[in-house]
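Inputs:
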Amino acid sequence: MPIVVQKYGGSSLADAESIKRVARRIADTKKTGNDVVVAVSAMGDTTDELLDLAQEVSPVPPPRELDMLMTAGERISMALVAMAISDLGYSARSFTGSQAGVITDGVHGKAKIIDVTPGRITEALGKGHIVIVAGFQGVSQGTKEITTLGRGGTDTTAVALAAALRADVCEIYTDVDGVFTADPRIVPSARKIERITNEEMLELAASGSKVLHLRSVEYARRFDIPIHVRSSFSQKTGTIVTDQPGPEGDAVEAPIIAGVAHDRSEAKVTVVGVPDRTGMAAQIFEAVTLAQINIDMIVQNVSATDTGLTDISFTLPKADGPAAVESLQRIQDEVGFTAIQYDDQIGKLSLVGAGMRSNPGVSATFFKALANAGVNIEMISTSEIRISVITRDDLLDDAVRAVHTAFGLDSSEGEAVVYGGTGR
Amino acid sequence: MPIVVQKYGGSSLADAESIKRVARRIADTKKTGNDVVVAVSAMGDTTDELLDLAQEVSPVPPPRELDMLMTAGERISMALVAMAISDLGYSARSFTGSQAGVITDGVHGKAKIIDVTPGRITEALGKGHIVIVAGFQGVSQGTKEITTLGRGGTDTTAVALAAALRADVCEIYTDVDGVFTADPRIVPSARKIERITNEEMLELAASGSKVLHLRSVEYARRFDIPIHVRSSFSQKTGTIVTDQPGPEGDAVEAPIIAGVAHDRSEAKVTVVGVPDRTGMAAQIFEAVTLAQINIDMIVQNVSATDTGLTDISFTLPKADGPAAVESLQRIQDEVGFTAIQYDDQIGKLSLVGAGMRSNPGVSATFFKALANAGVNIEMISTSEIRISVITRDDLLDDAVRAVHTAFGLDSSEGEAVVYGGTGR
């Protein structure tokens, strides 16, 4: 029997009515002849409410206990979903992450899945049950502590289960119809993407698209699991994320550009007046890295020949800003730079498409679109299938719309090109 | 180092402020040189809220999934208590029932503890941590399913942990000052009992006193664990439940009567016109027992010689009333009785005291008090240390007050007699 893994997020499980609707969908999937395994998030705002409670009793709660607390949210929703399914006449069994065999490392709050040993799941499927698994959580190898995978982790739970069970597809249910060419709240003419490669989805997720958890895409890519991102509020087909050939084979031409992503979660740090000597940049980034901060883009200005000084700018998550500035202040005298500037009024725009590899004109069109829209570019970084720029925060929406239009992605500008190629 | 086990109920953990107060009390116990293990219930009304949610998605939720759901409540409170303790500068580790080694049978909703394997608890104590355990829950032997112990089960968790850890005392914190000679809401002059034997406490708990879960007293008696019932809202000494000699040794005389309990949770079923032949009663009670109903008191009237018919009355939990009536109706033709009467307007009053064994005057005083108060007695049952009667529901409060006064239990009628004997 084919195995379908489904994931339902908190917005699809907001209240008893939503849970019943989700249960009907799960039962329908079972009825059409599939074994069904479901990963669920906590209901609606449960996670935020639990975080608030934690804050009330302790400003800096120990990570181990915070994980204990947070995992209760999924335990509640999984049991309720199982009850709602059984009320429809199907048998369902819920399992905690630990019971489901989701083995992680021991990093509380952002644990990584090391292995999945789904013995209890396959046993339950063999008995004809529908299986509901608490998402977002696991148990640490060896120490057997309860861990969580970080925000959005239930996507990863679902894909990891799909990989371990050799499922035919992993369906990620959310409150939008799929992955769009841009955020529809900013670009009303954005189009739903029919098919997208793992590589492109990875770049979109890393560039600010919030539809899929980055780690879940990495996991799906590694284990070659097709993901179907779709709405739990409709029956429409959503977006297929896969490197496998589509139903049309290789014949249909793929679009050059998959979509435009934007990100307002980063800030920019500029270290001013760094002596232009070997090892200075290394010293700066070592200090920041030691503070466990993930740096995104980096730009080092060409040294002005008359001063022997240079400026180094980098972007990082806003939440890590204070820690980064503090760690830099500690090495200021040693390195001998002039000043640290911190700027959180920036936005990042990224254009993603596997087709840009073989289309050298992409960057020219991209920069012309931004120039015509009056958007000044502060930093640039590129990968083989992505161009990202940093702009002023208040120009970001205009920039996204200008680029979206320039690449013919607006839904009014022609029909959606169905991607069906494997050659990308 | 002495080990103290504490239990905090939902009313002591109603909100963040209550949790912080409980955390301070736990930290103080640690500070005075004890290893501390704490069993916690779900916060305030959490259990009822989760039950409501379950009802919304399924009128008859599967017991396994209901247990999965309910256990989330204790997981939330245990993590919050651990956080609040760590905020005071002490290290705390929380464990689910399963992690704490609470092994039960597989009866969802009212599982019995079979064994406690507290390896992780002793390891954590050895490292100097305060241990917080989710009450009310365990994991079934063999099948490893999450189970719950039924309402009030956290008392039993605490006593079972105390037994497994050979703790010096098990402190049950609640919202009253201890066990009283009667319910203070009905008898304002009721006195707090200083010391009470396990046997008396068992009879009180079985007769409607709600301060301690019946099963926890059975457990404490079997493993000889002293229980200290006290308020989490004050520093007062509460009630010590133990068969061990008190600080005064055997010299002080124990009171004859421990207290008066009442119970409004039962109903009375009368089977009218039963043919007075051998085996008729057996057939009736077999039918009721097969419906998994616990019968409390039974009275069979003497057969009227002219008719050859008799009446049989018994009491049972009100919740089981419909099932009992239904099971009797099924055997009515076969047994040939005339009618079934169902009466839920009854109350039960119980007088409990180990001293009545050697004081034959107790029952005379008891019945005289009831007669003087104008209370008609419908059924009577006795044990060696208890007399129980069934009265009309609306006379129950008067009856309790009359009996309480007749045995000199009112606090104004002389000082409390401290129990210190072992001979009882």
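The longest strand of chain A covers residues 266-275. Flag for discussion at group meeting.
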